From TrEMBL:
This is DUF2846 domain-containing protein. PROSITE patterns: PROKAR_LIPOPROTEIN. Keywords: Signal. Residues 1-28 form the signal peptide.
């Protein structure tokens, strides 16, 4: 049996990325649950974060009727909605929130893992129509997206860079098979 790595795992990785400062965000959700893909089963997954010496966390995903997931990180005791939008085969825009702002990440599937990227907001991405670029009080710049189209255009720009060999390290990665499976969330 071949197991295909899919977007929900990436979504879980995105949710784990809440512990970092957001570089990409929007003031409101950019897509609805009905537009979200949910190919992963509900279950507990292992997420590895950090470069070099990796830290692992157990996270849970529950499918929600109508689309999307509830993401839960036991270590942070944090449950949030997670939506996953497939913008190209094996590439996903992850949307976590709403919180004070909706956070956005990019994920891609490989045969052995799901990688989650927290992309920079450089001048080229900031020049895309529908993208606002502001200096971060911590370091670098943040991107704020007004539309799904703008976020997808930026995600495709990052995808093209990665596929052309530009070294962009993932924020973390997800093992594609759940440690434990359990039932979907009920409303």
């Amino acid at each position: 049996m071949v197991i295909r790595v899919n977007s929900p795992r990436i979504a879980t990785l995105l949710a784990l990325s809440l512990s970092i400062s957001a570089c990409w965000s929007s003031s409101a959700p950019l897509f609805e649950a009905s537009q979200s893909v949910t190919p992963l089963p509900s279950g507990e997954y292992l997420y590895h974060s950090g470069a070099g010496e990796s830290q692992s966390d157990r996270v849970a995903l529950w499918k929600i009727p109508g689309g999307g997931y509830v993401y839960y990180n036991k270590a942070e005791d944090n449950a949030l909605p997670l939506l996953t939008y497939e913008f190209d085969d094996g590439w996903y825009l992850l949307q976590i929130g709403p919180t004070e702002e909706t956070l956005l990440l990019i994920a891609r599937t490989t045969p052995t893992r799901i990688e989650v990227f927290d992309p920079d907001c450089d001048e080229e991405i900031g020049a895309i129509s529908g993208v606002g670029r502001t200096e971060s009080r911590y370091s670098g710049y943040n991107c704020s997206f007004n539309t799904l189209e703008a976020a997808v255009a930026a995600a495709q720009f990052v995808q093209a860079r990665i596929e052309s060999g530009v070294p962009i390290e993932p924020h973390g990665w997800f093992e594609p098979t759940p440690i434990e499976r359990f039932g979907d969330a009920n409303p």
